[in-house]
Write a structure and sequence with these properties.
The chain contains 10 helices and 10 strands. The protein is of the alpha/beta class. The longest helix has 20 residues. It is globular and about 50 Å long.
Length: 259
């Protein structure tokens, strides 16, 4: 199993003075196979060479998770977001990352765009660029009812219809979207191209993101089902780390391995 850590677990430190080039050493220390990087760069062009050097030093893989989205509420906003996605593709390519995680939307959006010729052409162009670079765009199910419906994700995946456009299956986000993770997997299992492992803890009539094994999600069962279906890609331990991110990762690995 190819477990990797996520920069989001070190959010607090990375928003202070930590650099993402420090994450590969932490991944090696924790015994995982790679790192999911995020747009925490202060200057990506300066930081990328050192980050790549550290990945190579420890023999680790990289995934890049950008904040760019496939949909907005206007044509202009949607095109601008897809244009930004091209720059994120370039960063992923420079990192030798085989996967670029993308979003459905970052705010209000018009789902009807999916059926339009201009959107299909624009999104298809970005996917074609990804294919040329050997990268899979993996759209994540978000933690909200508007954009996080399995039916919407399925419409995106079926419309684009490319092996270089797949799903980031996040084990926890479905609950915040008002859906059962198992039922979403029934609909989307064949499209899984990347996986986020997180738990969800009930809190004030909703849920809070958490490390594994302490909440309402059967993370281990979902993970094993995805693996049984043939998925062999990275499994990102992707959750808030608070003041002790390393311990949250260790506890999550203990939950997975049962020791």
């Amino acid at each position: 199993m190819q477990f990797i850590i996520s920069a989001v677990t070190w959010d607090k430190a990375l928003k202070a003075d930590m650099l993402q080039a420090e994450l590969p050493a932490l991944a090696a220390k924790l015994g995982v196979k790679g790192v999911e990087f995020r747009p925490y760069w202060r200057d990506a062009r300066k930081e990328l060479p050192e980050t790549k050097q550290q990945l190579a030093k420890y023999g680790l893989t990289a995934v890049y998770a950008c904040n760019d989205a496939l949909l907005s509420d206007t044509m202009e906003g949607t095109q601008a977001s897809l244009d930004a996605m091209v720059e994120s593709l370039n960063i992923a390519f420079l990192m030798d990352a085989p996967i670029l995680r993308v979003n459905v939307a970052n705010g209000p959006f018009n789902a009807d765009f999916i059926r339009t010729e201009w959107w299909q052409k624009a999104a298809g162009s970005v996917v074609a660029m990804a294919a040329e670079k050997g990268i899979v765009l993996a759209v994540e199910n978000p933690p909200n009812p508007a954009a996080g419906k399995a039916e919407l994700l399925l419409a995106l995946l079926e419309t684009v219809n490319s092996p270089h456009f797949r799903l980031t299956y996040d084990t926890g986000n479905w609950l915040m979207a008002g859906q059962k993770p198992e039922e979403a997997l029934d609909k989307l299992e064949q499209y899984v191209g990347y996986v986020h492992l997180k738990d969800m803890v009930p809190q004030n009539n909703t849920y809070a993101h958490s490390y594994l094994g302490v909440g309402a999600v059967e993370v281990l069962g979902l993970m094993n089902r995805i693996l049984k279906a043939g998925y062999r890609g990275p499994l990102a331990l992707e959750f808030p780390g608070g003041d002790d991110p390393e311990e949250k990762v260790r506890l999550s690995l203990k939950y997975i391995y049962g020791k």
